Structure prediction request, 354 residues.
Amino acid sequence: MHARDDARPVGQPLIIPIFIPHLGCPHQCIFCNQRTITGKTAQTPSADQIQQEVNRFLKYGKDRPSTTQISFFGGSFLGLEKETIRSLLGAAMPFVRAKDVDSIRFSTRPDTISQESLSLLDGFPVSTVELGVQSMNDRVLDAAGRGHRALDTVVAADLLKKRGYELGLQMMVGLPADDDDGAMETARRIAALQPDFVRIYPTLVLKGSRLARRFRDSRYHPLPLESCVTLVKRLYLFFKTRHIPVVRMGLQASDGLTRAGGFIAGPYHPAFGHMVHGEMVLDAISSALDRMEKPPDPLTISVHPCMVSRVQGLRKQNIYRLKRSFALKKIILIQDTHIAKDHLLVAGAHIILP
Ligand code: SF4
Prediction:
């Protein structure tokens, strides 16, 4: 999976996405139908198309953040023909020279990284490379039809770091032959490679993928949304302890997924990341209440205004759950701009959110 990355969490660069759906891929991984994810059909974008797309973004980006990058993703960039790689980079290069864009990034398969392929980038302002790792377990990689080994990721990450690239690693949960323990083990092995950031994607059943056939034959059962949210929360917290930012959790609401028929089954929700953060807040409040002999009723929770929706959870589920678990009749949310965004006051008790 080399998924869309044009979301921009706070502090992240503005990313101008250039889709290269499925290009450079030696075959189709079992879960992938990149054309569904990006809503595009496979075609190498021309220099004109790239320039139009970048200009379109730049026009709307008057309040640009400090860093702007052109991103090639949706396929396996270094799996493309050498000439195609050079011409795509060449089309992006003038924007960097003109200082409208700071650098170029791309996503690629781990087994496309070698001294030779990286030498193709010499002279081009590429700063960030993302690897579709998916799993660090060879059995899971086999079951997903990836066609590479965990060792390829280790070697690729090492080469990229030695050459000074910013390194992003993408992992998936819910792959065939994987489970929660396997996902945690993948996270541990990914963290050992010291990436600059990670992305976590749930496995979805997409139209046109081989997984869709297995799903129809009842040979694949996707993770239920709730348990997937809990697993991704554990992974997020793990990476946090290793000081590795998780810049994305879940695919975003792209046209390709929401269009009728693109998405078949699996733990997809347009607010997936919000659900993960909401569950972390619920855990934090619950353990604060657990430590109280008898939580007061009504219970007051004071929070920075921008955190209200996380405290409430999706459709106020956190509030309902807290009421149910602690036999509370009323919860009063107080918005207070003086409270730091990652802090809460629960019945006067000060808690810091993960
Ligand atoms: S390498 Fe990535 S983009 Fe290519 S088929 Fe596999 S998951 Fe899809």
Observations:
- The first strand starts at residue 14 and ends at 19.
- The chain has 13 helices and 13 strands.
